[in-house]
Known about the structure:
By secondary structure, the protein is of the alpha/beta class. It contains 8 helices and 17 strands. The strands form 4 sheets. Strands 1, 2, 3, 4, 5, 6 and 17 form a 7-stranded mixed β-sheet that branches. Strands 8-15-9-10-11 form a 5-stranded parallel β-sheet.
Amino acid sequence: MSEDIHDVVVAGSGIAGLSAAVYAARADLDPLVLEGDEPGGQLTLTTDVENFLGFPDGVGGMELVQRGKEQAERFGATFQHGSVESATLDGQPKELTLSTGETIRTRALVVATGASARWVGAENESELMGYGLSTCATCDGAFHRGDDVLVIGGGDSAMEEALFLTKFAESVTIVHRREELRASEIMAERAREHEDIEFRWNTELQALHGSQETGVTGATLVSHPDGYPREKADAGVDVDTETVDVGGVFYGVGHTPNTDFLEGTGVERDDSGYIVPQTDADGRPTGRTTVDGVFAAGDVADPNYRQAITSAGTGSMAALDAEEYLETLSERKRQRIEA
């Protein structure tokens, strides 16, 4: 275990974590940023970002992340490889056990570990993620004006993605592996009644076609009248196979917040694992959690918006709240000494 005690550790190096690091570093708190298993977060999977303020011509996701890192380093933030495997967060200092085996201590922790989009395991999805395959319609839908697109999933996320995509796409087809939607009735009804949305029931995505140069150009779908066709194909049951021409595919099968390491720490999470941010005395949102000295930023506490710009905003909120918390610690220490 390191003998050093950091003022602030930021877990996560996506936009939320970088924003928190910039604010904490400018406050002379010398934050340590744990880059995690996927440095830069989900934005590194996005080729172009056109809706981030200050970039009228757009900016590459990787470039935006790299600029944020350089900005944080300029003000004094340091970066370290590794993610938090477990944490002891009661009292002071807080202890974090990392994936590297190291244990570090900190007075304040900003959790910006994000939420991982669920993938479906189709062929070529790793190669084409960010090149016509996306997990965020509000991020990438505008790139598909006039395209025929597929949305994979049957829950509220898929219905929301499909409805948003109708603003840009020529046609939207929801591909679902069974005949019943998991979506709420109101969302399902909106999708069913929309004239530009079609459904492919008892169907799954098997493979994506295209390249990083051309983007997604098509998809192979498998179907079976009893549903779950890929499972049946793996069991040797005959399924129908069809290749369709599409210009984009969107996964709408949900996200999983990266908060397993908070189990048993006292940080409140909802049923899906998202951190529940706390409000102040007047009911206004903050970056605080239910544990003193622990703050949350970005997608890890946001199942709704999941935008780079909102992540940046909550990152700054978490850092400002952490700064205020550290000031109260110093005041308590001074009062104890004087007593």
